[in-house]
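Sequence only, no structure available. Ideas?
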Amino acid sequence: MHMEAQGYGDSDSRLVEETRAGSEKAFREIVERYHAMTFAVVRGILGDRSDVEDVMQEVFIKVYRGLGGFRGEAKLSSWIYQIARNEALNKARKPSVTETPLDDVVIESPEESRPDAEYRRKIEREYLERCLAELDEDFRTALELRYMGEMSYTEISETMGLPIGTVKTYIHRGKIELKRVMSRRLFVDLCKEGDRS
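Reply:
I predicted one. Tokens follow.
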């Protein structure tokens, strides 16, 4: 039993059984427990916020429908991770309808709005998401699970089905790669600004 990693082993089994028996409360608990991880995985692959919400709903619908066939050979977290990853990858293969509006949001119009703290945070978050989207999928997912899902190395290792050493390497290399992407984007943006003036 792997109680120390997720801290949920026995209670996961209980929640699965109660959900199968028709308890909505038990399923809500599963959703709450694995929401951050699922969000991190899906956003790690898609980056786009509106797609993330759609896929999150699909993931938990599939989890609910699939619990009847869940035999417990894998940990519940690993099983949900695989569903989230597959759903996000399927969505990523389809052309995104929301891409253009997101691009429109990033274009600043000084006449219309005075940049304040909230607006800056929104722009920074979108910028970070775009940079993350350029990373290798494994690096991106590991970073998202660590910093958005707030998971330990052990939890990430079990969730992604990788040795802890590999997880640490992915996170380390992911941070280096993210800095490189952000620097390059900043340089390109500054060049574009220079061309306009």
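The CA atoms of residues 146 and 152 lie 7 Å apart.
Hope that gets you unstuck.
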